[in-house]
Amino acid sequence: MIEESPQRTGREVRLRGRDAEERLLADPGQRAVLERLVALAERLGLQPEHLDDLVHDLADEQATASVNAGEGVATGDFLEDADAVHDLLSQDASAINNGGLRSQIAFMVDQAGPEWAHAQLARSARTFDGRHDDRRAGGDR
């Protein structure tokens, strides 16, 4: 989605799916899918910080696609515009991450589908396996 920016000349790109949690919760079928995935993440012991990089990776993919399509801040300098687009989408990704597991998983489902999100949750659980979770690991390791 492209929105006019009151602070800059030109248009800024915003992260598609940044409102995914609200939209998925409004649809009973999607809500059930989201709640099942959140419950799975909790059973696996995942914390929001375990999914931060996944959210940022999806945002980076969008930023690259937007830059390649010529969308974004029109400063006339390709590298400056590309940096601005990546920064804007990274800020949106950070807001999603700050929203917690439900927000992160809703974004993942919105961007790549529930099967992909499920696979990533399982992969993240295997990757972290409690090593980075002080609650499960009993302190720093």
Which descriptors would you attach to this protein?
141 residues; mainly alpha; two-stranded antiparallel sheet; 7 helices; 68% helix; 4% strand; disordered N terminus; disordered C terminus
Proportion of strand residues: under 5%
Q: What is the molecular shape?
A: elongated
| Main sheet specs | 2 strands, antiparallel
The domain tally reads 1
The overall average pLDDT, rounded, is 84
Number of strands: 2
Give a brief outline of the structure.
The protein is mostly helical and 141 residues long. It has seven helices and two strands.
Descriptive account of the structure:
- The chain has 141 residues and is mainly alpha-helical.
- It has one domain.
- 68% of the residues lie in helices and 4% in strands.
- The chain has seven helices and two strands.
- Strands 1-2 form a two-stranded antiparallel ribbon.
- Strand 1 and strand 2 form a beta hairpin.
- The chain is elongated.
- The N terminus and C terminus are likely disordered.
